[in-house]
Recover the amino acids of this structure.
């Protein structure tokens, strides 16, 4: 506490939405193999992004618990198909959006690109939730519905913690994102494999 008539110097930085956006865009442009800027603001943005991922994963588990579990089971039974579907799905969506923007009139191309982008985001979000659940189930050896929240938390903690490792973390998270798209597509977003019709 400063005495009356004296000033007290205070250190620190002031962050505004504009400055945070600039840091985020700079982080997005950085290649995974480049050394990251380990400033407190960058760490804070990463932790904020992970918090958002956890909230989304918990919401998915609450709303689509059975579908998420089926998607995780399909991924475990055939990882090769999930990875191939992820790579092909990402390439197809990217090339489809690029072709639409280049060849179609803007009135049609923009909605098509938005729909393809929304499909990619939905597949990644759902697939990441399934990967969190599958990883946690394998680590905790708990596959019952009652243990799914704990398994999801463990899987998220492991993969989220790995993502914070410089260089390797970005590569692991990128690979998981591609696999997540494949998990969503291969499992048809957790749809049952067979339809069951009840006899009249």
């Amino acid at each position: 506490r400063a005495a009356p008539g004296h000033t007290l110097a205070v250190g620190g930085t002031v962050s505004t939405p504009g400055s945070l956006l600039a840091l985020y865009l700079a982080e997005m442009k950085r290649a995974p193999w480049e050394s990251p800027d380990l400033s407190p603001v960058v760490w804070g943005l990463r932790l904020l992004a992970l918090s958002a991922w956890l909230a989304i994963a918990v919401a998915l588990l609450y709303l689509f618990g059975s579908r998420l579990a089926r998607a995780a089971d399909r991924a475990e039974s055939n990882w090769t198909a999930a990875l191939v579907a992820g790579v092909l799905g990402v390439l197809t969506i990217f090339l489809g959006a690029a072709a639409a923007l280049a060849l179609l009139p803007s009135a049609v191309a923009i909605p098509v690109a938005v729909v393809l982008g929304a499909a990619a985001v939905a597949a990644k979000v759902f697939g990441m939730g399934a990967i969190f659940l599958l990883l946690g189930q394998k680590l905790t050896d708990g596959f019952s519905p009652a243990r799914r929240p704990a398994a999801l938390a463990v899987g998220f903690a492991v993969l989220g913690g790995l993502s914070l490792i410089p260089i390797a973390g970005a590569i692991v998270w990128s690979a998981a994102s591609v696999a997540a798209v494949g998990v969503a597509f291969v499992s048809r977003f957790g749809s049952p494999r067979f339809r069951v019709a009840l006899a009249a």
Q: What stands out?
A: The chain has a mean pLDDT of 82. The two ends are 81 Å apart (CA to CA).
